[in-house]
Automatic annotation (TrEMBL):
Residues 11-104 form the Inner membrane protein YqiJ N-terminal domain. It comes from the Bacteria. The chain crosses the membrane at residues 12-36, 62-80, 92-112. Residues 136-194 form the Inner membrane protein YqiJ OB-fold domain. This is DUF1449 family protein. Keywords: Membrane, Transmembrane, Transmembrane helix. The keyword Transcription does not apply. InterPro entries: YqiJ_N, YqiJ_OB. It comes from Sphingomonas gellani.
Amino acid sequence: MLEQFLTVPYLPFTIACVVMIGIGLIEAIGLGLGHLDLDGDVGGDMHGGVLDWLGLGGELPILIWLTSLLGCFTVAGVAIQQVAEGWRAAPLAWPLATAGALLVGGLLNTFAARMLARIIPGFETSVISSDDLLRQRATVLEGTARRGAPARAKVVDRHGQAHVIMVEPHDDRDAIASGSTVLIVRRDGARFFALADDDTFLRSI
C-alpha cells in the first residue's frame, strides 16, 4: 500500500498528507503560529460570503483550517483513485484526480471547518493580533539582538499562549544578550523592537 502512495497518480495526495503532518507538528511544539494573526485581514467585505462558505468566516485559526483542508483533500483524492481502480482497474491521471479532490475536499472542508470551530474551545479568545504583543515582556532565547540582526525571543500573551518572535533593540546602539528580559515597545511588520529591562529608561517604571 505504501508503494502505491509513491506512484505518480497518488503523489499529490501523498505530498498533501506530508504537509498536513508538518503543520500539525508545528502546532504541537507550541509555536502558536495558528493563534497569531499577522495582519492577515482578508477582505472584510467578503466576510459572511465566500469566507463563510469556505469555513473561514469564524475564528478558526488559519493553520487549523489549512490542516483540515489538506486532510480532506488527501482523503478525497485517495478515495477517488480507489474507486477508479475498482471501476476501470487503473487510477485516474493525477491532474484529473487532483481537480476532483479539490472540489470534493473543498466541500468536505466547509463542513469540517465549521465543526472544528464549534468543538475546539477557546479560539474566540486566543486568536490575537500581533499588536497585542506590544507592551509585553519577552525573553531572548539565543544570540545577541542588534539593530539589523534580530534574535529569537519568546513572549507569552494574555491568554498564556507562547509565541516566538524576532526582536531587535529599540535604540540603534544597544545590544541585547541571550537570556535578557525585554519590554516590546513597537513593531515593523513581523519584526519587534524592545528595550532591555536594565535600560535606564525602564528603571523608573
